[in-house]
Specification:
The structure is a single chain. The chain is α+β, with helices and mostly antiparallel strands. The protein folds into two domains: 115 residues, Rieske Iron-sulfur Protein; 268 residues, Naphthalene 1,2-dioxygenase Alpha Subunit, Chain A, domain 1 (Alpha-Beta Complex). The strands form five sheets. Strands 12, 13, 14, 15, 16, 17, 18, 19, 21 and 22 form a ten-stranded antiparallel beta sheet that branches. A hairpin with a 2-residue loop joins β18 and β19. α1 runs antiparallel to α12.
C-alpha cells in the first residue's frame, strides 16, 4: 500500500499524517529514512529524555570511568572521588576537543590534549595554561565540563539526562519497574556486567531494533529459522503463551512462555539455593510470572532494550539464564551503533558466569547466530525506505487489531494483549504513538 509522498508538506502536517496512519495500523516508511525527522528526534526526543548509560558494576571504585554516548553527544560516566556517579559531556570548554579518548580507566583528572585545560573527576576546571591572560574573566567554577542535569539509578542501572525539566526517573519508568525488578532483583547481590560491552554498527535506523524489542513476536520463527536449528534454544511441550504488554511512556514488554500452572524455572540452570534467594527477593506475583516465562524482553523509549533468556552455550548442553542489555545509539538516519552487555547475578558461581557468557556470545553477541539474523532484517527496511518509491510505502503494523484481547489473569501491570495466533503488533503501535507524541510535544 502506497501513499504519494509530498516533499512540500510542512513538518506539522507530516506528523499529523503519520499519527492518522498509525491509528489505522500503518507506518509510513519514510519515518525510517527522512533526515528532517531524524534531526527532530535528536532535538525533541533524545536531548530531552532519560537515556541509559551503563551499570554501576562498571564503575565500582572512586575514579573509575567509562566513555559512553547519549545519542550524538559523547559523555563520560564516572564515579568521582566523593563516590558520586556523574555524567560529564566529553568536550573541553575551551575549543570543544574530546577531553578523554580512552574507553575506560581510573583517574583523578582529565587533561585536554589540544591546549592543556585540566579538569578534576567531578568536572571542575582545575587549571588552564595562560590563565593570567584571561585576567579575572575565567572563573573555574563556571568553566568546568558540562554535567548532566540529572543522574539517577534503578537497581544498578544508570540513567541520565541533560534536560532539567524532565520528570523523575521513577515517573519515566512507571509500570516497567515491575518487569525490571523481575530481571534485576533476583538476588541481594544484584547484577554485574560480565566483560566490557560489545559495540558494532549496523546499517539500520535505530527504531527498527527498538520496535522489534518492544514487541515484535511475529519475526521469531521466520527471521531466526536457521538459528533455531542449532539446538541451543530450550524447547518445551507445555502449552505456549505469548503476550505483548503495553506500558506508559512508549515502553513495552513481550513474553514467550507457557500457560499458567506450568513451570520453566528448571531451564535457567540456577542452583536450589539461588532459587530460594530469588523467591525471597521477588514478589509472589513476580515469581509466578517468572515460573511461566521462557524468555521475555522489552524496550524503554527511546532506545534501551533488554532480554532475559535461557540459552545453551552449545547444542545438547543444559541452558543457563542471563540478561542481555541493548542500547540502540543512533549515529545517523541510517546507521545505529549497538551497545550490548551480558549481565549475570553477582552471587552465581564463576562457572555459571563463564557458561552464561559463552551462551550470550553464541546467541546474541556481535557474531551470535540470532544477532546475525536480526542485523540482516533490520538493514532491509532501512534500505528500501531510501528509494523514491520505497519511501512512499505504508507498512502494515495492524497485526492483532482485529482479534486481540486483554489477559486479565496475568499478575503484572500494563495492558496484556494476547491472541490465538500469538502474533501481535500492539506494542509496535503504542511505541510509535509515544515516539510521535514526543516529536509533537517538543515543538
Amino acid at each position: 500500500m502506497r501513499k504519494k509522498d509530498n516533499p512540500t508538506r510542512s513538518m506539522e502536517s507530516t506528523l499529523e499524517w503519520i499519527a492518522k496512519s498509525i491509528d489505522q495500523g500503518l507506518l509510513p516508511a519514510m519515518v525510517l529514512s527522512d533526515a528532517a525527522i531524524y534531526e527532530l528526534e535528536m532535538e525533541r526526543l533524545f536531548a530531552r529524555s532519560w537515556l541509559y548509560l551503563g551499570h554501576e558494576s562498571e564503575v565500582p571504585k572512586p575514579g573509575d570511568y567509562v566513555a559512553r554516548s547519549m545519542a550524538a553527544d559523547p559523555v563520560l560516566l564516572i564515579r568521582s572521588n566523593d563516590g558520586e556517579i556523574r555524567v560529564l559531556l566529553n568536550a573541553c570548554r575551551h575549543r570543544g576537543n574530546i577531553v578523554c579518548r580512552a574507553e575506560r580507566g581510573n583517574t583523578t583528572s582529565f587533561q585536554c590534549s589540544y591546549h592543556g585545560w585540566r579538569y578534576d573527576n567531578t568536572g571542575r576546571l582545575v587549571t588552564a595554561p595562560g590563565m593570567e591572560a584571561y585576567g579575572d574573566k575565567l572563573d573555574p567554577a563556571q568553566w568546568g565540563l558540562v554535567r548532566a542535569a540529572k543522574v539517577e539509578r534503578y537497581n544498578g542501572l544508570i540513567f541520565a539526562t541533560f534536560n532539567p525539566e524532565v520528570p523523575s526517573l521513577d515517573e519515566y519508568l512507571g509500570g516497567m519497574k515491575w518487569y525490571l525488578d523481575l530481571v534485576t532483583k533476583r538476588s541481594d547481590a544484584g547484577l554485574q556486567a560480565v566483560g566490557a560491552p560489545h559495540r558494532w554498527i549496523i546499517p539500520a535506523n535505530w527504531k527498527l531494533p527498538a520496535d522489534q524489542f518492544v514487541g515484535d513476536t511475529a519475526h521469531f520463527p521466520y527471521a531466526h529459522i536457521s538459528a533455531l536449528g542449532l539446538g541451543t534454544w530450550p524447547m518445551t511441550d507445555a502449552p505456549p503463551w505469548v503476550a505483548n504488554i503495553s506500558l506508559e511512556n512508549g515502553h513495552g514488554v513481550w513474553i514467550r512462555g507457557v500457560e499458567s500452572g506450568y513451570s520453566l524455572m528448571g531451564q535457567r540452570g540456577y542452583s536450589d539455593s539461588f532459587v530460594t534467594s530469588l523467591k525471597s527477593n521477588l514478589l509472589p506475583a513476580q515469581v509466578e510470572a517468572l515460573e511461566r516465562t521462557g524468555s521475555l524482553g522489552g524496550n524503554l523509549l527511546p532506545n534501551l532494550a533488554f532480554m532475559d533468556l535461557q540459552f545453551a552455550d552449545e547444542p545438547g548442553s543444559p541452558s543457563v539464564g542471563y540478561l542481555s542489555l541493548r542500547l540502540w545509539n543512533p549515529i545517523s538516519v541510517d546507521q545505529t551503533e549497538v551497545w550490548s552487555w551480558c549481565m549475570v547475578e553477582r552471587d552465581t558461581s564463576p562457572e555459571f558466569k563463564d557458561t552464561a557468557y559463552k551462551a550470550y556470545l553464541r546467541g546474541f553477541g556481535p557474531s551470535g547466530a540470532f544477532e546475525q539474523d536480526d542485523m540482516i532484517v533490520w538493514a532491509g527496511p532501512t534500505r528500501t525506505a531510501k528509494g523514491p518509491i520505497g519511501r512512499t510505502l505504508l507498512q502494515n503494523i495492524s497485526m492483532g487489531m482485529a482479534n486481540t484481547k486483554l489477559d486479565q489473569s496475568f499478575p503484572g501491570p500494563g495492558k496484556v494483549y494476547v491472541n490465538k495466533s500469538r502474533f501481535l503488533e500492539s506494542n509496535l503501535r503504542a511505541f510509535y504513538r509515544s515516539w510521535l507524541e514526543n516529536l509533537v510535544r517538543g515543538a
